[in-house]
Structure formats: C-alpha cells, structure tokens
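tool=predict chain=A
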Amino acid sequence: MGGKRGTRFGKSDFAIDFEKQICTCPAGYMADKKRIEGTSVLAYIFTKQTCNSCHLREGCTDHGKGKTITLHPQEQLRREIIKNNDCQEFEVLYRKRSKIERKNAHLKQHGMRKTRYLGKAKTLLQLAFTASVVNIKRIFTIANTQDSLSKRIEEVLAMT
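tool=predict ok
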C-alpha cells in the first residue's frame, strides 16, 4: 500500500487505463469519470455505496463518503518516470544532476537569482562574470586541498 496516509491505499494502488479512461480500485470496482471544471484535471469518483459495501474499505477510506482519485494532466508520464527511477541508468544520471544542481546553487548564492541589468547581452555578461568567480573559487579550493594533502603525505613519509 502506498500513498500519504501510511497504511491506506494511495493513488498508485489504483489501476488506471489511460486509453480507455477507466480507474479500478484494489477491490476491483470501477469508478465514474469526471473532469473538474475550468481545469484539465481528471477525477475518478467511487460512490459511497460502492465504498461502504467494500471489504477493503478500512484500507481505503474511513469517512463513508466514497473516494475520489484525481489525476494530473500528465499523470501517465509521471507514472512512467517514477517506474524508470528504479533502474541503474537513472542513478548514474541522478548523480550527475546533483553536481549540476549544486553548481546552480553556487551561482544563485553569487547573485544569479536575479539579474542586475536589463537586456539579454548584459544578463549574459553578468552570468559570465559570476561563473568565472565560482570557477576561480573552485580552483583555489582544489589547489589548497592538494597542497595540504601533499604536505600531509610528506609528513607521514618523514615519520617512517
């Protein structure tokens, strides 16, 4: 069982056929489809009569008003992405992404959240300067680390 409520059934526990637009609960009941007005959100509504007579009701709902499963307009894509997150290839890409996200955070700390200038050319100039500063800081950090590392190695070798 998944979802936000611990032991209760979550949205991922419901079988959804995106082509036929049918939602089936873990007990096998099908829901009525409804589009929420003014949005592209789709909702599947299980009636209170269906839910109250279900043998899995305690794992699904406790208020006796039925259950509604709302789907994001890109729900099918979201489910495919979540399913692909378990593979080895994703882990390799995710490690690379974390490094990129860290660099983006450094750029934001140095003023790239909001540009100081108007116009694309001046904004790109600010980006170039900021990236240069971040890179120079990284070079000094690596240089200091290598110097202190080589000094420690020499100290250890001198002791033996």
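The first helix runs from residue 48 to 52. The CA atoms of residues 37 and 43 lie 11 Å apart.
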